[in-house]
Amino acid sequence: MAKATEIILREQAPDVEFYYTDTDKKQVYEGADFVFIQIREGGLKMREMDEKIPLRNGCVGQETCGAGGVSYGLRSIGSLIEIVRDVRKYAPDAWIINYTNPAAIVSIALNREFPDDKKIFNLCDMPYGIMEAFANLLGKNALDFVPEYFGLNHYGWFTGLYDTCGNDLMNEALLAMKPGSPETEKLNIEKSAEKSWGETYRHLVTMCNDMPGSIPSTYFQYYLYPDMMVKLSDPEYTRANEVMDHREKIEFGHAKKIIEQNSAEGVNVVADLHGRYIINVVNSLANNLGKIYIVIVPNNGTISCLPDDAMVEVDCYVDKRGPRPFNVKQASLFQKALLQNQYAMEMLVVDAWYEGSRQKLAEALTLNRTVVNLPVAQKIADEIIEANMKWLPQFFK
To answer: Full-prediction pTM beyond 0.90?
Structure first.
């Protein structure tokens, strides 16, 4: 990928100096103004394990939420802490832009490890992905939306949607989501070969009608309909297998062709949603634009029903000072209960990592709405610890 990127930049941005290394940390970080971090600790094979351990125990198997997300988070914390320490050694004033999943868990760990570091910036593109889906639905540009959104990462709600002139688009969006509306077909983002995304947006229509008045994160399909999601899953062929069989082969195939022909000519190299979002946010940060984006920040009173140390995902003005959240509307009793339960679950996961505590890991999984049953949580906890032995030595002391 690095070699293919070098060729693409040579052709499309020849003024950009590019180099890559997997050994020289000083060369990578020294003098940097921005450091972008996105890791998948253990690769897709461990993602497959994250998804299949819960499924064989009758629970949701997903990479960032449920027991799979807990496993992935535990495995990622140590490496992220090490990376941030290295960055701070060579670039003490750089903005660290962390795009690593599961953002809910790793952002808590980073905030706990580096409580005084105000230049760690945690991001997720899923809310923007939903905005793009609604842009398709309404025939608009997602970059022209001004959202009202609050919650935890992969666990929040849109309560308002406006254009840049202040026109309220929320009712229009919700009306278009009524069962049987032909407009909902525009939500199905099935441009890739991966059918699961189309299913996800069909489930979003169901959720909007089951819980009217707001637009939930698509990940609530796992928390609110866990039995259905387990029934729809194949414990022998999960999303990780789908990615390895489709997207991974396509992307590495593109890279191989670029390297072989020493040119990106004839290769469909385009910026996807994932890349567009992070660049737009960092552009606002670097150039002091003060635009509104959805960012993960310490709560500090932003969501009144959560403690200050919660890492919340909310609307923020983004300028050279970083993300500045503004207070959100009062959560409903139902939303409060969900948020407080999820907050406790995420905190217990990070406690378990620091303490090497199997007990706290089992407690976290018991609180998780995709597990709930304590004996099952204990069994999954043991399997997660065993599968991640290489990354979790503290559990074996």
So the answer is: yes
